[in-house]
Amino acid sequence: MADVAIEYDVPVPMRDGVVLRADVYRPQGEGPWPVLVARTPYSKTDHYELQFLDPLLAARRGFIAVVQDVRGRFTSEGEFVPLVNEAADGADTIEWAASLPGSSGAVGMWGLSYLGNVQWQAASRQPSALKAIAPERTFRDPRTTLGFRSGAHEMGLVRSWGIGMGFDVLARRYADDEQELMKQLLSLAGAADGMPGPTYLELPTGVDPVIARYDLPNLADPAVMAAGDVTALEESVTVPSLHVAGWYDLFVQATIDNYVAAAERTPAKLVVGPWNHVGQASQQGDINFGLAGNGYVIDYATSILDLTFDWLHSWLTTGEAPGDDLPVMVYVMGANEWRSEPAWPLSRAVDTQFYLGAEEDLTSEQGAAPVALTFEYDPENPVPTVGGSTVMPHPPSGAFDQRIVEERPDVLVFTSEVLSDDIEVTGRVTATLTAATDGLTTDWVVRLCDVHPDGRSYNVVDGITRVQAQPGKASAVEVDLWSTSMLFKKGHRIRVQVTSSCFPRWDRNPNTADGLRTGEMRVANQTLLVGGGTGSFVSLPVVPGSSRGES
């Protein structure tokens, strides 16, 4: 590392007197150099964390790279409350970074997930030195993309994240009582080891008992969600932004929506690959989507980090974007190729309705007469989460064979005929169900799958909607499955699942008025109407002329 000098634990004073600490990576030479800032709650020296930032590479690419522990975490002073202090602390850190010896005065930010949201918060304060941000795989409205999804609790994320954050919380809380500290750490380690088993099964489901028992950071706290709401910040963000997303990431739609909103006001770029939240390999679950989709060799030409550093370096040194290509790059899974587009969503994609049929079929025309299909949803025996766009240690995210799910009596399955031509679906997938329940509340889950010729059924996208119902009365239920880009190949089939749970990703709806507080559960009798004028369907954004020959 002779070409990079590292200063550890450099103090960064905040406006209220609290001192945060950062590691500063410097290129050799006098500069001046543009500065990149990453602010993390996960430890600035954690090897796993640093692989996504690679500050050594940043320094070798001609940046002063700053990696800082946020307030109340690891080496930084103060009390940690997720997201709440990041706007002011971020703005203070940017102005401090601009004045570092050797700095050119131009500052950018980079990083994913929590590290992406803090960029939005800092940028909303409009620090004069900030010239560009690169928020990767991050959230938007926390009510629909962080703590909750269409009313359902993102329990798998919230509980596992809180446990992971808890070890440093406990280390600070019991710093003066070594015996109690060891007791608490061992207990929390047991909770971590209990995922996905007893740790997720603990009830009640509404007030998370694991978070409450250890007093852990809670992403579902209203104050936390309000602080992290990009929709409330974006009008104040005036700098260019680079958005990187993954089709199997929990924050894929949020990142895309962040881009769409940003592109209306400032220069922006969007890159979406076949990745999950913390992995950028082209192997996602059981499916390998092709070497070109690997985040380390994007289209055999670059990596996520190189693309990010190229983009930031251009804005921080010339004040302009790299004059390379169109602003949107998406990876079409199935076709396993990158495509550049002028905008998102694709203007040529046509929303096409596929109707759920009485014979478990999926067709372009709905049946003449409505038919009622029924199943029982028992919250004490929920449908298990098998892959998908999740952020949990267990079960993993990605594309997995869904036949273990589809064999259950509480999952309705609708399948198209064998495709005679390729069908590309690129854009936002939605479903409209005409449905009823005998409970006061329940959930509806819809999943789109790609069925291979040998019968394997792989999840593509899914979504959930929690409803407050009038027992026995059918009504329209809208389910947002978010966005994807998938080529359903000739010889494959398109499949749609309809059910009422996906656990432990989303908490179980107990089907009772007060069950989210008390844990009281009941079996719900579910009815789905298909066919006729009140039928149920999915809407797929089909790209015309997407046939690509034999599979």
Fold and architecture overview:
The chain is of the alpha+beta class and 551 residues long. 23% of the residues lie in helices and 32% in strands. It is built from 14 helices and 25 strands. A ten-stranded mixed β-sheet has the order 1-2-4-3-5-6-9-10-13-14, sandwiched between helices. Strands 15, 16, 17, 19, 22, 24 and 25 form a seven-stranded antiparallel β-sheet that branches. A four-stranded antiparallel β-sheet has the order 18-23-20-21, with no helix packed on it. A hairpin with a 5-residue loop joins β20 and β21. It is globular.
Radius of gyration: 24 Å
| Shape verdict | globular
Strand order of the largest sheet: 1-2-4-3-5-6-9-10-13-14
State which percent range the strand residues make up: 25-35%
What is the overall pLDDT average?
94
For the biggest sheet, the summary is:
10 strands, mixed
Runs with pLDDT <50, length 5+?
547-551
What gap, in angstroms, lies between the N and C termini?
48 Å
Number of strands: 25
Helix content: 10-25%
Number of helices: 14
The SS-based structural class is: alpha+beta
Task: Offer a few descriptive terms.
globular; alpha+beta; 32% strand; seven-stranded antiparallel beta sheet; 14 helices; 551 residues; 23% helix
Question: What's a concise summary of this model?
Answer:
23% of the residues lie in helices and 32% in strands.
Any chance you could write out the topology, listing elements then pairs?
Blueprint: E1 4-13, E2 19-27, E3 33-40, H1 47-53, H2 55-60, E4 64-69, H3 86-98, E5 103-112, H4 114-124, E6 130-136, H5 142-145, E7 148-149, E8 152-153, H6 155-173, H7 178-193, H8 198-201, H9 209-214, H10 222-227, E9 241-248, H11 252-263, E10 268-276, E11 283-284, E12 287-288, H12 304-317, E13 328-332, E14 337-341, E15 350-356, E16 362-363, E17 371-377, H13 403-406, E18 412-415, E19 423-437, E20 441-451, E21 457-468, E22 475-488, E23 493-499, H14 515-518, E24 524-530, E25 537-543
Parallel strand pairs: 3-4, 3-5, 5-6, 6-9, 9-10, 10-13
Antiparallel strand pairs: 1-2, 2-4, 7-8, 11-12, 13-14, 15-16, 15-25, 17-24, 18-23, 19-22, 19-24, 19-25, 20-21, 20-23
Helix pairs in contact: 3-4, 6-7
